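U., I forgot to send this yesterday:
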Amino acid sequence: MTTHRLPGEAAALAARSGGANHTVADASRTAEADVAAAARALVIEADGIQAVRTALSGTLGAALVAALDVLAAATGRVVVTGMGKSGHVARKIASTLASTGTPALFVHPGEASHGDLGMVAGGDVVMALSNSGETEELSDILAYTKLRRIPLIAMTGRAPSALADAADVALVLPAMPEACPMGLAPTTSTTSMLALGDALAVAMLERKGFSPDHFHVLHPGGKLGRQFLRVQDLMHTGDAMPLAALGTAMADAILVMTEKRLGCLGVVDGAGLLVGIITDGDLRRHMADNLLAQKVERIMTPRPKTIRRTAMAAEAVGFMTRSQHPFTALWVVEDGRPVGIIHIHDCLRAGVA
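Result:
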């Protein structure tokens, strides 16, 4: 139930509660302060990323190239580790590396000390994150890399430090203030680590020549996967193709069209080349021409539009829908011979639009 108070009562209640009930003006000033605080944080973090970018022209850039050399030489996986906020960033870096063609996984340093060191094997590379470079929980996994002669890449905000000194390659971030006004909560440091991890993954991707085809293999689901579907992934092939040879009577051709249920028929010559197409529209236009007694070459539209099997499915959709006269099926050919047919409904069912 809503309680209505007189203006004087509201003022007295606010006074008794220490002014907890803000006026509209107070709320407006608070909102402005909130937005200003958020904007300051973004500016400080953006400055931090800019500082990392600038540092790439010096020793950090040389270290980045050395780290890429280590990653490229690995025959195993990249084991990324970190504690606390650095651990969360490490998980994301591992995920990004794995999704761009560099096998990687995250190992929690605490769990590593209780058996998960067995996940680190010969041929692997360990990448350890710690802003201070003195994270005690990393000590066991660092010692293990030395015992097993496993290359260690460090990402840290301090050098010298225990982590930087133990590493084969140290990616040392430039000094930068945290966005937290007390300078305590990891903010700029973690954002910069995350950005440097992305930069490392992208540089590795380009060094490996990672292509859209590779990306599709690792991202088969969701919108990303659908964007990389190719015509050959969706087309009908073999006996599913509605085909008839030159000289076929339309009475027989219509039976093939009805059986295959794709709304069209491809016409091939004696060499197997696609020379024409018959659509439902063609049938309607020739209904008065003693249709069933005609041969397919009398009814077909010659030189039909075609597409290659390796084209993106989205390209096929655009071809069918953006034509001056839109159509619903498109023949797929190689060297002039039909190898498949793709229908607009196949693309829509797959989420390609």
